[in-house]
Amino acid sequence: MPQELPDIDMPHQIIANILGREDACSEDTYKDIIGAGPEMQHIFHLLSQVAAAQSTVLILGETGTGKELIARAIHSASPRWNRQMVKVNCATLPANLIESELFGHEKGSFTGATERRIGKFELANHGTLFLDEIGEMQPGLQVKLLRAIQEKEIERIGGKKTIKTDVRIIAATSRNLQKEVAEGQFRNDLFYRLNVFPIVLPPLRDRIEDIPLLAAHFIARFSRSAGKKNVRLSGAAMKQLMAYNWPGNVRELEHALERSILLMQGNVIQDIHLSSVQPVMEKKFRADEDYSRTLAEVEREYILGVLNKCGGKVFGPGGAAEILGLHVSTLNHRIRKLGIQKAHMYFLKKP
After folding, report:
1. Which of 204, 232, 255 is the last residue of a domain?
2. In this predicted structure, what is the pLDDT of residue 29?
3. Is residue 60 domain-shared with residue 185, that is, in the same domain?
4. Which of 127, 209, 244, 247 fits a 20 to 30 Å CA distance from 346?
């Protein structure tokens, strides 16, 4: 009897990213979002529900969880994909400049306004306006933002003309906005206007099963840029990655692997150079677990897993090619190149 395998349900864009292909999807919308565990499967499901709509989206999550990446994915999969996504970081702009940044100003409207400036709302017309770190916005400006969203119109500072806008709003914050509302730091009417479709991104410590996949992605990227070939991750290094608490989330993992590749000797990462000292999570590891695998080995395992899932069926409805989003000829080429034979298809071990 064939050994029962866990379900494998990876978005084909992720598989395409691992394989280094360019023809997996005509839009390749989510190609930079890496994750296969249940937490990220839920995020992909939410993206598929909201991307094609015009609804306002509020992305919530800790620093480093990839909020801007999600915003760009929504925009790229929306009917506005061929228009601009304009970003405003509400945390980095001084309070006296953010109104001009958003709505623009007329020449001479204040000291230093030597020429007319077009604001982000106008620049994003018929596109998407991404308001990053919306929780940092001052209460006085929140009122004007609320009016711009509700009325779909703005006025430049010093201007007398009302300008109609057609902008989809995506906002993001690492703050607890409900708590901010309760404490009077954030307007409740603006919160409800933004919180039409919330997406809460999980911290990396809650999606540990994605760490090997993320590590393979970043190692492939940074080893190319560093001019290093066949970079591997030792079992000890992988255990470091899996045990660390990741307060900086995916961004910290990315930087840690880039730093470790630059500092490594040879082509095996023996130690992860972490930027901060944090207590590791207590996790049990199998003594025989071996994470020292090449990207080709990771690819082979995933293709084998999908073949197992569909009983060795390569083409047709429910076949491996359909699940992976590959042309049948492309998948057959990869199977031959990776040395996968029919005899292998029912003997992939459970993790």
Report:
1. 204
2. 60
3. yes
4. 209
Instruction: Tell which of 155, 183, 204 closes a domain.
Output: 204
Q: What percent of the chain has pLDDT above 70?
A: 81
Return the bridge partners of 131, or none: 88, 171
Question: Quick one: pLDDT band at residue 5, thresholds 50, 70, 90?
Answer: very low
Tell me whether residue 27 is in a domain.
no
Residue 288 pLDDT greater than 60, yes or no: no
Token readout for 298 is 């990771």
The CATH code of the domain that includes 133 is 3.40.50.300
Structure token digits, residue 76: 């790229």
In a domain, 30, yes or no: no
Instruction: Give per-residue pLDDT as tens, 126-174.
Output: 999 999 999 999 888 999 999 999 999 999 989 888 999 999 999 999 9
